[in-house]
Design brief:
With 201 residues, the chain is mainly alpha-helical. The protein has 10 helices and no strands. It has 2 domains: 57 residues, Homeodomain-like (Arc Repressor Mutant, subunit A, Orthogonal Bundle); 137 residues.
Length: 201
């Protein structure tokens, strides 16, 4: 096989894998993980069931790949936000990003909400989430401390609960204005816009 053929083969393989991941995420979100079969995903993705198993040995392995892919997708925006020196601005950007992510990734929100209630059945979910929480918690606590929060540890729990509540309510109402109103309320709570404007003047 020529080098060119190797490159073309790898490109086709990546495209097929991408199609499988995107299709699986959509169907897991729409129908639920338990109600979605490998055959359904293969059919929707336009590939054979046998080819599916060249990429993933099981539906659980595919689910793990879908979640890891989404976490990786979020990494770059989060790294960019973490690099913002002004903590008022950084927290404001984080709230805006979260709202936009909820709007544009509804299937992922549905999937994570349903799986979050059954972590015992999928222990790798807890591992993925715990790893991210361990890396983000100290950073957010320090940012809350920077803006004058007296008890950043407790306040972060409140902020996380508000974000989780936003996600669940949005799945029910699908009302963009609700998300935006809650986002404004959170920014007002921490005086984020006010301090960013003061900094710019």
């Amino acid at each position: 096989m020529s080098p060119k053929s190797d490159i073309e083969f790898e490109k086709i393989r990546k495209e097929s894998k991408r199609k499988i991941l995107d299709t699986a995420l959509r169907l897991f979100g729409e129908k639920g993980f338990a109600s979605t079969s490998i055959s359904m995903i293969a059919k929707e993705a336009g590939i054979s069931k046998g080819l599916m198993y060249n990429y993933f040995d099981s539906k659980d392995e595919l689910l793990q790949a879908v979640l890891s892919d989404m976490v990786e997708h979020m990494e770059q925006p989060y790294r960019e936000m973490m690099s913002i020196e002004n903590s008022f601005e950084m927290l404001g950007k984080m709230i805006d990003f979260t709202v936009e992510f909820m709007k544009s990734h509804k299937e992922f929100n549905v999937l994570m909400t349903s799986l979050g209630l059954q972590k015992e059945s999928h222990p790798f979910i807890k591992q993925i989430v715990d790893n991210k929480i361990k890396s983000w918690v100290p950073i957010y606590q320090k940012r809350l401390e920077d803006i004058g929060v007296e008890d950043p540890e407790t306040e972060l729990l409140i902020l996380a609960a508000a974000m989780d509540g936003m996600a669940v309510q949005y799945l029910t109402t699908e009302d963009d204005s609700h998300l935006e109103n809650v986002a404004r309320a959170l920014k007002k709570r921490y005086k984020l816009d006010q301090n960013i404007k003061s900094k710019d003047q």
